[in-house]
Amino acid sequence: MTVEKVETLVVGAGQAGLAMSAHLRKAGVSHLVLERDRIAERWRSVRWDSLAANGPAWHDRFPDLEFEGDPDAFVAKDEVADYFETFAKQIDAPVRCGVEVSEVVRNTGRPGFHVTTSQGEIEADYVVAATGAFQLPVIPPVVPETEGLTQIHSSAYRNPAQLPEGAVLVVGAGSSGVQIADELLASGRKVYLSVGPHDRPPRRYRGRDFVWWLGVLNKWDAEATPGVEHTTIAVSGANGGETVDFRKLAARGMVLLGRTESCQDGVLSFASDLVGNIAKGDENYLSLLREADQYVERNGIDLPEEPEAHEIGPDPECMREPIASLDLAQAGITTIIWATGFGVDYSWLKVDALDAAGRPAHQRGVSTEPGVYFLGLPWQTRRGSSFIWGVWHDAKYVADHICKQRAYLEYRAADAPVSENA
Ligand SMILES: Cc1cc2nc3c(=O)[nH]c(=O)nc-3n(C[C@H](O)[C@H](O)[C@H](O)COP(=O)(O)OP(=O)(O)OC[C@H]3O[C@@H](n4cnc5c(N)ncnc54)[C@H](O)[C@@H]3O)c2cc1C
Predict the structure, then answer these.
(1) What number does the ligand 1 atom closest to the CA of 35 have?
(2) Cα 23 to the chain's mean position, in Å?
(3) Which candidate in 12, 87, 137, 211 could, as Cys together with 153 as Cys, close a disulfide (CB 3.0–4.6 Å)?
């Protein structure tokens, strides 16, 4: 059996794997990228049809390649996938598509890893798991299978026409849930939206997109607080980019609900947290406006004032009298879309780099198993880590670490015998 030898093996050719390849190439580290599907497959085929990037083109990109067209536009998902293909060509990334990594184990008695793939065996000194943070759709076991009720995860949603006739309940009001609920409402559906805790920055304020504000206010670089779950962020690049405003959605006919808690005989119960969740989201929105105003004043920047952005509209009826329970059949709900996030799957990574729950055990992507790295994790080093532009900086850190480790291994004592220095 022939075993291919590579210095660094990168698993996955999404944005994380490509950023890794770019930095390894710059550092002169030979490597191979294995991708089980196609480059940027998730952007290509595992998102809904109308998805556009959540940040403008000038921002949501790698520093070494600009998007074609309007830099302030929100690029459609297929163009994002095309962008990464172009980038892979630009850097001549050594990507092999259609190859799945099924196992990585540590060598015994010598450094490095033995890797089993769908197309043969590989020996690698370093392994970077760039398989993303959005691997396994998570659907909480709340509603049992019920005749006449379709339940799908947001990753399986494509467009309104795909769903059976009837009202839709969307569970989860992060960027995915809110955008899907909005699209369904616009298509003429009756829509219920179960709203959990969230942040909701203004899309634009005083003429600048929120990505700019988070940048100048140093918020993209905020580090994770140990033990604190991060709050989902509700933003949208749809329709040219809009502020997520739950009151406006309710004014258009959407029914807002608290967190979905349980289901008994076809009747769903909701937590009494709707008003509180919306209030915290409003406070997050208003606090960013206040910080932006202070920044403008402190720095004497000439940006037009926007006092009307501080006005929060009246509470809709569904907030004044929150619904505690809902009979699915009576409400005509035929579909539930669970926009409840993703889990990770590192079952192929059989090394000492995972905690008891199977999650990466790491610091800034450097795992507890020397030689194994992670990339693309939310809050890997900072708030921006799982975003297109953020993963670029984390990949640089990982590449630097590999170079440092390599230098230690290459060290030989000055007075060592010649044979040892050879
Ligand atoms: C709905 C949604 C919208 C998003 N919108 C934005 C946005 O607008 N802007 C932004 O910056 N970020 C956005 N993100 C976050 C993030 O940028 C994307 O999820 C992005 O796809 C993550 O890139 P990645 O390279 O880390 O992982 P992925 O894109 O998931 O790439 C990992 C790759 O690894 C491959 N792979 C997995 N296992 C194996 C294996 N065992 N062997 C070989 N290959 C394997 C997969 O096929 C996949 O191609 C969004 C996320 C979601 C879910």
Answers:
(1) 44
(2) 21
(3) 137
Percentage of residues in the chain having pLDDT higher than 90: 93
Contact 75, 67 (CB under 8 A): yes
Residues lining ligand 1, judged by CB closer than 6 Å? 11-17, 34-37, 41-43, 47, 53-55, 60, 100-101, 130-132, 134, 176, 348, 376, 386-388
Cα 9 to middle of ligand 1, angstroms: 18
Residue entry with tokens 């210095």: 7
Q: Residue 205 CA to chain centroid, in angstroms?
A: 24
Buried b (16+ CB within 10 A) or exposed e, 350-371: ebebbeeeeebebebbbbebeb
Reference 244, options 178, 309, 176, 312; nearest CA is 178
CATH architecture, domain 3-135+344-409: 3-Layer(bba) Sandwich (3.50)
Tokens of 122: 């590989």
Cα 67 from chain centre: 20
205-227 mean pLDDT: 92
How far apart are the two ends of the chain, measured CA to CA in Å?
A: 29
What are the φ and ψ backbone dihedral angles of 52, each rounded to 5 degrees? Answer: -120, 155
Ligand 1 centre and the CA of 132: distance in Å?
Answer: 5
Contact 264, 319 (CB under 8 A): no
Check for a shared fold between 3-135+344-409 and 139-338.
Answer: yes
Closest CA to 280 of 226, 209, 199, 334: 199
Query: What does the domain layout of the chain look like in residue ranges?
Result: 3-135+344-409, 139-338
Cα distance between residue 106 and residue 135, in whole Å: 24
Q: How far is the CA of 384 from the centre of ligand 1 (A)?
A: 14
> φ, ψ for residue 4 (rounded to 5)?
-75, 140
